[in-house]
Amino acid sequence: MEWRDxxxxxxxxxxxxxxxxxxxxxxxxxxxxxxxxxxxxxxxxERATLIHxxxxxxxxxxxxxxxxxxxxxxxxxxxxxxxxxxxEDALLEALxxxxxxxxxxxxxxxxxxxxxxxxxxxxxPAEWRIPERHLRLLRAMALTHRLGGYFFVxxxxxxxxxxxxxxxxxxxxxxxxxxxxxxxxxxxxVHGHTPTRDRxxxxxxNRINLDTGAVHGGALSCAVLEARRVAFLAG
Length: 235
Description:
The protein is an alpha/beta fold and 235 residues long. It has one domain: Metallo-dependent phosphatases (Purple Acid Phosphatase, chain A, domain 2, 4-Layer Sandwich). It is 30% helix and 20% strand. It has eight helices and eleven strands. The strands form two sheets. It has a six-stranded mixed sheet with strand order 1-11-10-2-3-4, with helices on one face. A five-stranded mixed sheet has the order 5-6-7-9-8, with no helix packed on it. A hairpin with a 2-residue loop joins strand 10 and strand 11. Helix 1 packs parallel to helix 2. The protein is globular and about 50 Å long. 45% of the residues are buried. The mean pLDDT is 97.
């Protein structure tokens, strides 16, 4: 791995592996988990945390497989944090009876997710028989996670609003207002949601974007954060 100076920091003995938008690319996620296992075997650490930044599902061919991987900690990982993405949110709202969310889910590529469960993509949510382990995972997903000098979230944050006062819609969906801001946010924001133009991780003073368009031909990216440095893995 090629190490760089990081914009944030982690406490001594902590390491974070943060993975960008998977979108059903289960094979690539498995490859990253394998790299994480190898890295931890070669460089043990007191506490390793794996964070999936949301949008595990939709578009790609194996959302079910991606969710299964999110339920399993690679060897050496002490904690797995699965964050809610706007795609998971649309699925949950559709299941709750929101017809607008159902349209969004289908427009977002949700048919591929249903197909990965062996379900008819055009069927009504009342007919969906989703594995219970996946429903539990989806319903348990957190909106944010904070550790050291980093704030992990799917979409981003609204500049000028305290991190503890951010609203759900912005955390899941914000784009340009957040991306264009050079403000100091109180922590370095590690996020996905918006694919980078060059399909490489975006490293800025106030944020790190790890959506490198895995489902659109880019790599699946993972930031390795420790102390005051960062490196990247690609699946």
